[in-house]
Amino acid sequence: MAATGKKKKKIPPIDQDFIEKMETSLLTLKAEIVDNLVASNEDFKEIMEGMEPKDLADIASDDIDRKMIEAIGSQELKRLKLIDSALTRIKQGKYGHCIKCVKRIPQERLTAIPYALMCIECKSEEERRNR
Question: Is 6 left (phi over 0), alpha (psi -120 to 50) or beta?
Answer without folding.
Answer: beta
